[in-house]
Amino acid sequence: MKTVKNTLVTNVKWHEAIEYAVLKTKHNLSRYKQKFPHIANDKCYDWGDNEDWIEGFWTGIVWLCYEYSGDEYLRLQANSQIDSFHRRLQNQHALEHHDIGFLYGLSALAGWIIEEDEQHKLLALRAADHLLGRWREASGLIQAWGPEDDPENGGRIIIDCLMNLPLLYWASSATGNPRYAEVAVGQAELSRKFLVRGDDSSYHTFYFDRSGNPLRGGTHQGYRDGSTWTRGQAWGIYGFALSYRHTGNLRFLETSKRLAAYFIERIPADGIVYWDFDVPVTGSTSRDSSASAIAVCGILELLEHLAPADPQRQRLEDVVLLTMSALAESSMSMAQEYEGLIDHGSYHVRGDYGLDGYMIWGDYFYLEALLRLEKQIPGYWYERGSSSQEGD
Ligand code: GLY
């Protein structure tokens, strides 16, 4: 596997940043036991139950910390969190949405990848079945939110969904049943055609009628309907790169490259993006460090598939270095009692919620990026040793 590590030079020592994160994670675990961190706008996270779209990120962080440190305490904590995901699926609690990959990929599938525990594998497969159940045959899409008859969301796709598709690709290779991957490819193709615009920017969401006829692009968390929500663009960079890894379809690779080129042209000099690429920037405009961290992971995935002489390579590597140096320096300057890893994330600025603080998914992708750089551990979007596809 070709890595970028040897070509990146930085003053920041990634291993020190990881050790700082492991210490903080252990401290948080010992304080909050079975609770899950959500978002924060001061030095403490809100800690809650397993009933939102984001709890998998915390378990994913614990797995990453375990993989780095080999600390048995972390392994036991991650395993015991999986019990909570098991109960949630069993009770069908707050699961009427598409974020099943985020929830179960980073908990149960990660547990299978690391531990080779058949129970974790079975849970991940049951979760994949649940996600498959959101495929709407008549319209040919995975419905993002709500029940099938939801008048607003019945025919709606969102760009974030690309990150839930790896669970489906994996389920096909784990079971030999092609159906999961067929649905994933259908969703990725639909996203490529309708969410990605001709100038390489993206819609956050797109609406179809019940027969699958396209209606219009729109947004949920972006600045306005035609704007480019920064985190959505980052989900697209990473999501299409992962769809390429799982399928070998070069159109997905090209799409990831296009989205990345658009993103990196709009990064401010200090390395951390604003929450929407079209928002007028003033002194009080929110940043989204989580979008920056997601984009870095997507770019690191993309770099694994680019030829050594690809003209985009150098610029992408420079951006990884700029962004990760900024994130790690800021993270390591925060005292241990500050519970999050990276500050200045935003959640739903348009909805006036989570304007500036820690976002648990931002912390996860920051740590994943560090482990990709330091240890070549790529998170939990595919099984280790699964080769990249044709075109590499
Ligand atoms: N997937 C929801 C978000 O990025 O806010």
TrEMBL record:
Q: Where is the active site?
A: 99, 160
Q: Kindly give the Pfam families that the UniProt entry links to this protein.
A: Glyco_hydro_88
Annotated GO molecular function terms are: chondroitin hydrolase activity
User: Which GO annotations describe the biological process of this protein?
Assistant: polysaccharide catabolic process
Give yes or no: UniProt keyword Hydrolase.
Answer: yes
Instruction: State whether keyword Hydrolase applies.
Output: yes
List the keywords (alphabetical): Hydrolase
User: Which amino acid positions bind substrate, per UniProt?
Assistant: 99, 160, 217, 219, 231, 235
Gene3D superfamilies in the cross-refs: 1.50.10.10
Q: Which PANTHER family match?
A: HYDROLASE, PUTATIVE (AFU_ORTHOLOGUE AFUA_7G05090)-RELATED (PTHR36845:SF1)
**Family of the protein in this entry:** Belongs to the glycosyl hydrolase 88 family.
Q: What is this protein called?
A: Glycoside hydrolase family 88 protein
